[in-house]
Amino acid sequence: MAESSGIDAFVEFERVQKSYDGETLVVKDLNLSMPKGEFLTMLGPSGSGKTTCLMMLAGFETATHGDIRLDGTSINNIPPHKRGIGMVFQNYALFPHMTIAENLSFPLEVRKIGKSDREAKVKRALDMVEMGDFGGRRPAQLSGGQQQRIALARALVFEPELVLMDEPLGALDKQLREKMQFEITDLAHRLGITVVYVTHDQTEALTMSDRVAVFNDGRIQQLAPPDLLYEEPENSFVAQFIGENNTLEGTIKEINGGLALVQLDDGELIDCTPVNVSEIGERTRVSIRPERVEFNKERMKEGAHTLKAEVLEFIYMGDIFRTRLRVAGNDDFVVKTRNAPDQVRLKPGEHVEIGWLPEDCRALDAP
Amino acid sequence: MSELKSTGPQTMDAPTPEDALHEAATLRGRDQTDASGRLVTADGKSLKSSLKRALRMQKLRALMLIAPLLIFVLVTFIAPIGSMLFRSVENEIVANTLPMTTAALKDWDGTTGDLPDEQVYQNLFFDLFIAAEAKEHTKLGSRLNYELTGVSSLFRQSGRRLDDLGEVYQDPLEDLNDAWKDGATWYDLMSGSGAGDTDLVDDQRRRYNALTQSTDRRDIGFVPSQAISQMLPRTARAYTAWATFTVYADEDVVAEEDPWEAVHAALALDLMADGTAAKIAAYSGPRADLLQEAATLEFPAADFKTGFGEIDEDWLAHVTWETIKTYSPKYTNGYFLNAVDLQKTADGFEPRPENQRIYITLFQRTLFMSLVITFSCIMLGYPVAWLLANLPARTANLLMILVLLPFWTSLLVRTSAWKVMLQQQGVINDVLVWLGLVADDGRLVMINNQFGTIVAMTHILLPFMILPMYSVMQTINPTYLRAAKSLGATNWTAFWRVYFPQSVPGIGAGSILVFILSIGYYITPEIVGGTKGVFISNRIAYHISSSLNWGLAAALGTILFLVVLLLYWAYDKIVGIDNVKLG
Amino acid sequence: MKLNKILLASSALTVAGGLAFAASHAEMANSMTLVSWGGAYQKSQIKAYSEPYMEMHPEVSISWDESSNEAVAKLRAMNEAGNITWDLVDVTAGDAIRLCDEGLAMEFDPNELLADGDDGSSAEDDFGDLLVSDCFIPQIVYSTTFGYRTDLVGDTPPADVCAVFDLETYPGKRSLEKRPINNMEWALLCDGVAKDDIYDVLETDEGQQQALDKLGTIKDQVVWWSAGADTPQLLADGEIVMGSTYNGRLFSLIEEQDQPVAMLWDGQVYDLDGWIIPEGLPEDRLARVKDFVRFATDTQRLADQAAYISYGPARKSSAPLVGKHAELGIDMAPHMPTDPANSGNTFLQNYSWWADYRDDIDAKFQAWLAQ
Fold this sequence. Notes:
Largest interface: B-C, 41 and 37 residues
Strand content of chain B: under 5%
Strand order of the largest sheet of chain A: 6-7-8-3-9-10
Structural class of chain A: alpha+beta
Number of helices of chain B: 28
Oligomer: heterotrimer
CATH superfamily of the largest domain in chain A: P-loop containing nucleotide triphosphate hydrolases
Radius of gyration of chain A: 24 Å
Number of helices of chain A: 8
Number of domains of chain A: 2
Shape of chain A: elongated
């Protein structure tokens, strides 16, 4: 599933396992490699093992089994302070008893960098996050967003090649979060640093990352660039976890080239793209994105499958309309349509025909 | 809004302050104003005053809520401290017991080496007589014995033999005429006729109340006539004093009781005074005949000085009088001087003899040992508190019970346990001997000295250090340490630069608690301190419960209190009191 | 008619009698708070005094407070607060004198308050010299004396109080009370001062220094005690060779706990312990206390107490009545400090002298200790 090996890999996890209690594995057989300069996001629900992976990389947890390599050398036995990895914590972890400048100066001091050098670097780092005037303040005097920038600056001030971020935007409000998302990616690309970013917010993952590793149950479910992840989920967990998704349960009837014939549970037959199903008679979960469903006959693409549906609810959301339908026994089938001048607004109780292209309908494993 | 719109266009091109005001007023729209433009409430009262009233009610309710605490603190904390401070300077007992003597002593110059004159001894006789009747003279003796050894028995014995001095004058009078044995005679004579001298009665009532610390205001049923009190001033005073005492203390009727010997002595002194004879000859009030008859008597010459000398030769000692004079004022710094190893003299103060200096040493020792104990508590308590804050909850709870366990046992038991551990035939020495580390005849002395005190008190006070440290450490997020390490700090640097500074408020709070507690401790030092491990509080306890020198105890306590305040102030200056957190 | 009159008269009499009876009882309070030292001593008082008294007066309830060691301060505090909660307080004679001087204890006439002796002597004669203060009701004679470890003194057990100062013959630690009283006297006595001159010498600065110097010769071998239980404990643990304490404590250590300890009666200092009645009691409580004291200090009761503890009764008339220990069954007379065999060389504490000199010498003594 996840690709391992890679000649110019900068960070590598090889067959890494982690158990806290000796009975259950929190991380199961993790293989991952990322090149220098990549922005990789570990995405997953809580308890999926993503933070543990990050902590193992930072050195705060030791791998129970396997090897973690940084720039080709195993760091399993190197204490955290010698790894030279910058880290931004969820609650920023700015030292409350030091001023902002002292906080930034701290990693330089412990590296025994001279005073004038230190001051220059601190100033540069503060300017970089546009906080040049705040050097004399204490963390408690700053707003959340400001603290976030300082935490970022502190993780970068000693010029690490790898920076880890553990849900750094979790405590910010939506607007600020979006602004910071942009700033962080911009900064990362400008400085050319490698970033491992942990979050459970998929939007964040999709908008920021070069690649996203979706974690569940101690494994990477899929490691891919955001667009692939969204459009071509490799299993029903990823399909479900990333973006909104309609599912219909059924059984494989036929697999023929790039097409699978699926009999839905109410007897309807539809064509789908088989993804991780191979046998006839296998249970499957069919996944269709809401924006790929069409009910307007004029716009219906050629070759589209149609099914009967009953409108249950119509929600006006400004830029889009969200219509909930009953399709093949599923009451939660959602269709999203753009709010265009010629767009039809369906009314509850209406009966319509909906349709989609077979390539937008992915037959995935049924968990 | 509609008004605003209508005024808007016309005034737009020339805005003035008046317009602004007008706008502001109109903006308020429907707010009601009174004649002078102030805002009023719906029912027409001034808004300001109703707001004030509402706030006052709130404040009053809040005050009532904390009233029990406030009263409790006032009664149990502020008042005792105030009374302690007061007691350390209060010295009314000398002037209250010997009012006339101390007044007369003001004119005595103690530096000449001469004894006070006869008048002082006479006053002493009358003062002491009343005091002895009220059984207050021994209190004064005890008080002055703190300053001069022997005064205690001097007063006690003199009190018993004062009658002898008075009887010298009583006997001739009663021999002369049996009427002098009759209380009614005296009553008639002293009541006289004409206007009464109520001032004298008030004076004596005040004096009685001061002497016995009471507040009796009853009428004594007797007023000396002004004629008598001018003709026989001493007698009038002594008789009124006696009458007051008879009514207030004995609850008897003045006219039915025989006066004291002192009253007879006073009469004799009056009769012997120059010019009295002539006045008596001219006197015509009740019982004038008796007086005129008595005026012919030859009394022994007044010589109270010799009389007192016969009672006790200490009354002829210069130092006795010097002490009384030195401690005559109602307020004294004597206790404070004693508390810092000085002694009060007639003209200032001087150091105590070397073999009596103890308090400075004890203060220094108390401070030094309290600091050592505080420091030991920090060293021992810090790792424990750290463990408590960082262990999983279940283990931490168990450890917490171990920390609190000492609280559940009596202080005496804990201290005595240390005795068993530390004494020369104790557990630790036994183990050391058994291990061969110490020879059997060279067993370590670990108790009844400073070491024992420090060990036992560190153990007893340790929880007071651990608890605040623990509660502060609990609030320190472990990610700070991780952050520090991720930034390149070694374990030690991360601890020292990041964790430790954040735990300082806990150390501060714990240190203040432990230091202040240990500075006032006395039970443990008393039991395991031997001679070198006792604290100033042990002397305070001694003066409170054994020597009853409460003034000195209060002075020592006050100094201790000031030292603590001073240290608190210094702590605030150096570390900052904001840096103290109990959690 | 006649019958009626008689009936009426007799019923009137009954009523009157009843009233009189009620009145006489209303005068006495029915509860008392007695203050004592706790421990075996208080137990002996309960057995000898209060239990028999309560048997005679079932309506009376007696509660005990173990506060005698701080009685002086507490009485003063009560007096200042104007609320005396104690009815009868057991104190040493020295404290009684202080309380009397402070006006905190009630003065009384011994012959009026106390019962005559069994032998017909008046109370004043029976108690004799032991009435050391106008406020003090003597109860027992005890002594402060030395006990020593029989196994630590070699073949020559000490017979002389000066063995305390003899570090050569009796090496090891000894315990002394952490106050000047008694210690100063012993020091001078063992420094060659005649017994009769001791207080004269002690009045001078030089004499006080002489006593302290003598104590200084053993200072680093002394464990200073402040609670009566300390010396017995130290002796039992083998921490000290010899030590001073109250003779009753040593008696129970030797006879009841069977420790290898023996008494050194030589040089024992008699001290008195007894009751004081706090000044200012309300009349009904005072009446009850007077009634109790009269009972509790009569010849028989004082002799009874000696069956529980080895302290001598304060009445001369009680001495012949002293019997056996209530539990051990041994004769108590030989264990009394006043027994002729024990009282060859004794002191009686000089209360009035110490009342004067205590403050001064204590300051010097404590300063000397702290050096």
